[in-house]
Amino acid sequence: MKHPNFTIASEIQQALNLGAPIVALESTVITHGLPRPQNLELARDMEKNVRDSGAAPATVALLDGKIRIGLSDGELVQLSEADSVLKVSHRDFATAIVKKSHGGTTVAGTMFAANMAGIKVFATGGIGGVHKESAFDISTDLHALSNIPMIVVCAGAKAILDLPATLEYLETMGVPVIGYKTDEFPAFYSRESGLNVSARLDSPEEIAEYAKAHWDLGMRSAILVTNPVPEADAISKSEMEPIIAKASAEAIKQGIHGQKLTPFLLGRISELTEGKSLRSNLALLLNNARLAAQIAGEMETKKKVWAI
Q1: pLDDT at res. 307
Q2: What stretch of H or E contains 71?
Q3: What gap in Å lies between CA 199 and CA 251, rounded to an integer?
Q4: Residues that are catalytic
Q5: Cα–Cα dist 305/307, whole Å
Q6: Residues 228-232: contacts with CB within 8 Å, 24+ apart?
Q7: Can you tell me the distance from the alpha carbon of 122 to that of 103, in angstroms, rounded to the nearest whole number?
Q8: How far apart are CA 70 and CA 166, in angstroms?
Q9: Measured between alpha carbons, how far is 187 from 177 in angstroms, rounded to an integer?
């Protein structure tokens, strides 16, 4: 792909040329999700887990107004230490380009850029969705999932959201919600939500076959693969619900909304759980990176067979 506003790292371009597995990674967790130096440590750990699982990590971000697909370690450091970084979803790309700004890409922003580069697998923590505080506050992530054909590996939607409404929206938009080795939609910090997925698949191979069948029919939506947080790092739904309710009530009282809402809620929940939720968040991110790399490997292996 040649585009004046895109720069693809040599490692990622080589993987694209060779048909080697690639996993896209978002960058708002680096720029807006974690304090320093944990943000850089996580970025490096995510990339290492992808590499150790056999794929090339393509962290997506903007540096000086250029959309970058894949970052060097020095660029990760630059991004993690930058101030006044934009949070970039669909509507924000042009702003970052015109102002020559650094930017951390959201789930939707990462999907857009990775798809433009030809990457089909993406690992994140949890998708955005419908907020409890306002039924009209709906993440662009859901729209992106409805029209960008990509496998998105996550631990469900962020538990701060209205999960039933988020699943209803995904159903309306025709987005399959796959449970990886589970029949239940995971709730980010918790393995349980009381809500069902649309299908259960138990191996990366099955997920690759499902993706082919879905897209061969002409479907254009993403495939959302929900991967529960590891049991050792999970927090029960009963423990999290009152904490989330308290953080949500505080956000309403303080008039916090829009792009500031999710960072506030996640930060306040971390305080209320004395860091337990943050540890869970880090564990699920690395778990998703590993699964995404395995799926990307199966996709590339099967593409060679499917082409015969």
Answers
A1: 58
A2: none
A3: 35
A4: 26, 158
A5: 5
A6: 228/155, 228/156, 228/180, 228/181, 228/182, 228/186, 228/191, 229/155, 229/186, 229/188, 229/189, 229/190, 229/191, 229/280, 229/283, 229/284, 229/287, 230/283, 230/284, 230/287, 231/191, 232/283
A7: 18
A8: 30
A9: 13
pLDDT of residue 120: 98
Which of the residue ranges 56-65, 102-111, 239-248 would you say has the lowest mean pLDDT?
239-248
Distance (Å, rounded) from C-alpha 22 to C-alpha 15?
7
Would you give the distance in Å from CA 222 to the centre of its chain?
12
Task: Say if residue 193 is exposed, middle or buried (CB neighbours under 10 Å; 0-12, 13-18, 19+).
Answer: buried
Site of tokens 């409404």: 165
Pull the structure tokens for residue 56.
């090339």
> pTM of this prediction?
0.94
| pLDDT tens, residue by residue, 269-308 | 989 999 899 999 999 999 999 999 999 999 999 886 665 4
Q: How far apart are CA 232 and CA 280, in angstroms?
A: 9
* CB distance 252 to 205 below 8 Å: no
